[in-house]
Amino acid sequence: MSDLLKMTLAEARDGLRARAFSSAELAAASAAEIAKARPLNAFIVETPEIAAAMAAASDARLAKGEGGALEGIPLGIKDLFCTKGVQTTAGSHILEGFKPVYESTVTQKLWDAGAVMMGKLNLDEFAMGSSNETSYFGPAVNPWRRGNDDARLVPGGSSGGSAAAVAAELCFGATGTDTGGSIRQPAAVTGIAGIKPTYGRCSRWGIVAFASSLDQAGPMARTVKDCAILLREMAGFDPKDSTSVDLAVPDFEAACNAGVKGLRIGVPKEYRIDGVPAEIDALWEQGIAWLKEAGAEIVEVSLPHTKYALPAYYIVAPAEASSNLARYDGVKFGLRVENDDLTRMYEQTRAAGFGREVQRRILIGTYVLSAGYYDAYYLKAQKVRTLIAGDFKAAFEKCDALLTPASPSPAFGIGEKTDDPISMYLNDVYTVTVNLAGLPGIAVPAGISKDGLPLGLQLIGRAFDEETLFSAGSVLEKAAGFTGKPGRWWA
Q1: What backbone torsions phi and psi does residue 194 show, to the nearest 5 degrees?
Q2: Annotated catalytic sites, by residue?
Q3: Taking the domains of the chain in order of start, what are their residue ranges?
Q4: Taking a C-beta distance cutoff of 8 angstroms, is the pair 102, 68 a contact?
Q5: Which of 67, 381, 449, 480 sits at a 20 to 30 Å CA gap from 14?
Q6: Is CATH 3.90.1300.10 the classification given to domain 9-258?
């Protein structure tokens, strides 16, 4: 493996500016490693030619002493972000072959900052999943393994391809989206960092929608600082997105050095859940000790409506999905199953184009929105959502951020939970509250399980206070000293 790819994004950025190596060299090394790592199935589309052209342009700008904050840095893009002229599938058969004629706002911001696109990353179909097993293009594979066990493990979901690519050091960072934990949970189980920003911090324009009131784009990278660098460039107001918030974007990288002295860190008692492995609770206690040692004050807080978060989420999210996915009908773009009868064409196209999990969620969503059930399910779930947001508001009167586990378990084997959707949904137990309340949350790699797999901790912050998360996350990261790397069994 090229030593160039062992650097952090920050180190690569500084090396490019110092002309220690070229963007062309980084892109070539990344393309070569991506090709070797095809057993991981992290990429749906590889774009080495595009990368080479973008890298050459970056080198030309760097030679003149010009260039943006990410000039020449190879990145992977979750295949939920529309990329002009490059296939965008959302991991679904129904969009196979679709090449947008426009660029998502987030990816355009990255290209404007000088980043280099290495390809489109695998994901759960329409981001519906916690393991990347629902992708039409097959599951992405976690680069980590359990001890001497050769079983293939999930990289988490839905941003599983993004997590696998970053953890396997195929690129320096990746975009993800988080609807109920889809950045934080895969980051935690692959030993990388990932942040879901506040709802409205990053534009959703040009991102294939799952649940519009919950979806939020964010970065995934090897370190907290790398995530801060990426988020600075991804964030910002977009008039094309009505949910985008017109606020200045802080210097997130500078926040990484602020420390936690004087901060109050809340520990929600409702997150102590029966049946969670002892090593998850032990890591949580260790995280509390690290922050206390660094000068933070630890306070217990209550989020009493947490127990209703999962059922509320799995009503709200499918309801919005059933509306958003109604546009895929075989008429304007994507898959079409020809039939002389228009209604039958709709039915057959959707039956052939959508996988089982997507069909399940559309049906659930349609059911809870239907006459006679709307009040009993959807309306009640929205009321619960308001109560959860109120819980957080009350908690943040007592503290500046919350510390919780990021995932209820280490990575599990591919196929181990596919027959039990409820068990699969429980993977989001620590993360969905954050989406329901629209708050920022970051996952930080913090430990290793008894089977040699990564474990992560989560910090939750006030709306638009990602800076505190970067400050506290950097302290956790330093204290944990997580240096684990997966063995390169695929190469």
Answers
A1: -160, 140
A2: 78, 158, 182
A3: 9-258
A4: no
A5: 480
A6: yes
